[in-house]
């Protein structure tokens, strides 16, 4: 087991409906040392890809994006789920479906922060069916930006998001891939060897 799998096994909780709660360390209360290891791992994987932006969708991916971007010495940009009065100018917009909330969001990103000059690393805390990543890829396509890689903390390998992204040619790195989870039996991680 790697460092993230060990932490999920010790502190994660499996709930009904294929919900994996990691809120004590990853997406509510944040273990900054763990996030730093995640960021460093993504940096080691993608350091030679010419990345000049790290992109995520609010809110849970922001901490991972920040810890990753510090190693690349590049800015973090995030697509916003909520309309706010401080969003001005031209915007990229895409629809993202949240598995956790079972809701569609229009995510937006100001055009001034992403262009055809950018090589982007997309990051997020979870990958299930891939809707958030598809929305971020759509935004990158609208901008003419290059998706240089996709870094995911936890992939639900029993759902098809990761396999579809890899099948489409994207370089996806998931630090922990959960192949099965059950409230009684717990978790089964994929051996990434």
UniProtKB/TrEMBL annotation:
Keyword check for DNA repair: no
PANTHER family referenced in this protein's UniProt entry, alphabetically: HYPOXANTHINE/GUANINE PHOSPHORIBOSYLTRANSFERASE, XANTHINE PHOSPHORIBOSYLTRANSFERASE
Protein known as: Xanthine phosphoribosyltransferase
Organism in which the protein naturally occurs: Butyrivibrio fibrisolvens DSM 3071
CDD domains on file: PRTases_typeI (cd06223)
Assembly and interaction partners: Homodimer.
InterPro entries on file: PRTase-like, PRTase_dom, Pur/Pyrimidine_PRTase, Xanthine_PRibTrfase
Pfam name, any one: Pribosyltran
Similarity remark: Belongs to the purine/pyrimidine phosphoribosyltransferase family. Xpt subfamily.
Function: Converts the preformed base xanthine, a product of nucleic acid breakdown, to xanthosine 5'-monophosphate (XMP), so it can be reused for RNA or DNA synthesis.
EC number(s) per entry: 2.4.2.22
Top-level taxon in the UniProt lineage: Bacteria
Chain residues that bind 5-phospho-alpha-D-ribose 1-diphosphate: 128-132
Molecular function via GO: xanthine phosphoribosyltransferase activity
A Gene Ontology BP annotation from the UniProt entry: purine ribonucleoside salvage
